[in-house]
Each structure stands twice: as C-alpha cells, then as structure tokens.
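Database export, one record per block. Field names are fixed; values are copied verbatim from the stored entry.
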Amino acid sequence: MSERSILLTNDDGIESVGFRALYDALSVFADVTAVAPATDQSAVGRKMSTDAVVTEHELGYALNGTPADCTVAGLEALCPDVDMVVSGINKGANIGAYVLGRSGTVSAAVEAAFFDVPAIALSMYVPPGGDVPWHQKATDPRDYREATHAASYLVEHAEAAGVFEQCDYLNVNAPMPTEDGEPADMEVTYPSELYDMTATYDDGSVRLHDRVWERMATGDIPDPEGTDRRAVVEGKVSVSPLTAPHTTHHHEALDALAETYL
C-alpha cells in the first residue's frame, strides 16, 4: 500500500505551534505537504482571494491568503494529487452550528468537499480560567498530543472504514491532555444549536460578545448529550460528521408564493 498524501493547512498560520505538532504527527506515516497561511487568518470563514503570493517553506508552501485559498491552491496547483485535506490544529475549539461558517479551520475542510476530497478540521479546546489567559496557554507541542493522537487515528482509519461515504468532512474538537495522561474517549456528535451572542451600544460604538465561552467555563450549558460542546466540556474528543453543500427541501408554502408572484 502506497504512503498516504495529505495537504495540511490551518488558519492560525504556518508558524503556529499546533500546526507544527500536527505536521510532525502525520509525517510519521504520511507524505504531508503544508499549504497554509503565512499569517494568522482566524475567523475569516470561506473568504477567498483572487491572487495569493506563494513562498516556499521548509514544510511546503506559505500563502499570503486565507485557509480557503490554501485548499484551492493546493488541490488545483501545488499538490493536486493528495488523498486528504487536514486543517488544524486550531488553538481554541470550533464547536456549535453558529461557528462553522465563521471558522477558517473548518472552512478549509468545507472547500475540500467541493473537490470531492475527504477532509478533517481539527481544533483543541483551551479552557479559560486560572492565572494565565487562555491565549497564553498551549505553547508547547506536547500540549496538543490529545489532538494529534485523534487526528492520526482518523486519518489512518476513517476513509477505509467508509466514513466519507456518508459525510463530506469531519469537524474534530479535542481537549487538552489531562495531568494524569489518561487518553480521552472519542464521541460522535452533532453541532450544538446554543447561541448566546450579545451586543451593547454605547456612545457610538457597538460591542459584540459571545457569552458561550464564559458559560462553558462554569459548566452552565444546556447542550444535551450528543452535542459537540457537551462532549468537549466533559473532556472527550468530539467528532462531528458533516456535509458541505447547503441542503434544500420541497416547500409547499413557497411553491404557492411563487405561483402567485406577479
């Protein structure tokens, strides 16, 4: 059996710790080519460019562009014969239905689906709280070992098991490793529908705030069993099998409106 080939991208940038940790883990058993943003492109969704400067990098290629740019550039021009696209490891979870369209990490996987290439988006939940702000945590590649273990397992086994015959991509969220080193369980989930965005207006400025993260820190979440957020808060690896194209259904009420349109 020939060695698997992987296009590896992300949205935190090619120099991020999580990206290198995943590159090293996957390179143990696969031919990995990095096609990733040169700088942090977090939360850009599926934003596309018309031109993106490419710079050769020791891991592959760095693009002055978005994660979606990287997927298209990689599959069309830079490494067109890969078996799979893997995006991550994002520092911070990408959970909940409302996040999917915002996340650059997830969007890179969505873009791959339109090429009929299996894809995995991988993120790591970094709990808030304590004396250190969450964005200053997870600075060592070893902090990502739970996520890299899950990624390696799924890359090696998911396609052969027929997983991608029923979905286009997997959205995976892993916890940080526990102090005792015990591996986390893996749970198949669906995106939570909890939405708790707020906006306040004051003196000509609007402040937008996502209260979900604070609720996760205190455990104050109504998400039922089976959701991605519930699994992550409980310390499990969440794996959501998802489809990329927007679905549509027959709507009799809309048919009636169309028939009376003048």
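Remark 1: The radius of gyration is 19 Å.
Remark 2: The longest strand covers residues 30-37.
End of record.
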